[in-house]
Write a structure and sequence with these properties.
heterodimer, A: 115 residues, mainly beta, 4-stranded antiparallel sheet, globular, B: 110 residues, 9 strands
Chain lengths: 115, 110
């Protein structure tokens, strides 16, 4: 079964760091563009970062210089290193796969609380 | 305020039809594909429409997508109570080099 499973969330103080992981099963993660999306309580979905098959990387302006997206082929995993965390980064974070210009597979989400 | 504009809410009776609009600009919808997602907060979003008007396997033909110029529309016919959720459009923005979600539309099936 094709699945994504996030881990690494938790509670951190402002200015702290967390590293989210997203492990794929049922497909080769490095063969797809992959993204992180978040949703703060009571807010809409917000795209955070993406990494293309060729290694091209993009970030939403609010996380540039603080977050780093990466992947590890050997572990079939996607990562989001989050530094200098702010209260406004508190959200449920999802990893998601791109297929034919749509986000077709999503993880169940992992909570990050900055307080 | 989102760059892609959606109505905050829509409602209709069971069995009826509803449309949800998504308005953008030439830097996003006008020159890129639009996809649509159904989301119940706290659960994983579900892809309903990709590449403007295509349905993934398993999505019923009650769901449809269309794009014209800098706007896109999601249509849902034969509304069911199970369709109650938040719906989002998504498009890449060439000027920002970011993916953009619309603000989301809450569908209520009365």
């Amino acid at each position: 079964e094709v699945q994504l499973l996030e881990s690494g969330g938790g509670f951190v103080q402002p200015g702290g760091s967390l590293r989210l992981s997203c492990t794929a099963s049922g497909f080769t993660l490095s063969s797809y563009d992959m993204h992180w999306v978040r949703q703060a309580a009571g807010k809409g979905l917000e795209w955070v970062a993406g990494i293309g098959i060729a290694g091209d990387i993009y970030y939403v302006d609010s996380v540039k210089g603080r977050f780093t997206i990466s992947r590890e082929r050997a572990k079939n995993s996607l990562y989001l290193q989050m530094n200098s965390l702010r209260v406004g980064d508190t959200a449920l974070y999802y990893c998601t796969r791109v297929y034919s210009n749509g986000f077709d597979i999503w993880g169940q989400g992992i909570m990050v609380t900055v307080s | 305020q989102s760059v892609l504009t959606q109505p905050p809410s829509v409602s209709a009776a069971p069995g009826q039809k509803v449309t949800i609009s998504c308005s953008g600009s030439s830097s996003n919808i006008g020159n890129n594909y639009v996809s649509w997602y159904q989301h119940v907060p706290g659960t994983a979003p579900k892809l309903l429409i990709y590449e403007n008007n295509k349905r993934p396997s398993g999505i019923p033909d009650r769901m449809s997508g269309a794009k014209s110029g800098t706007s896109a529309t999601l249509g849902i016919t034969g509304l069911q109570t199970g369709d109650e959720a938040d719906y989002y459009c998504l498009a890449w923005d060439n000027s920002l080099s970011e993916a953009l979600f619309g603000g989301g539309t809450k569908l209520t099936v009365l």
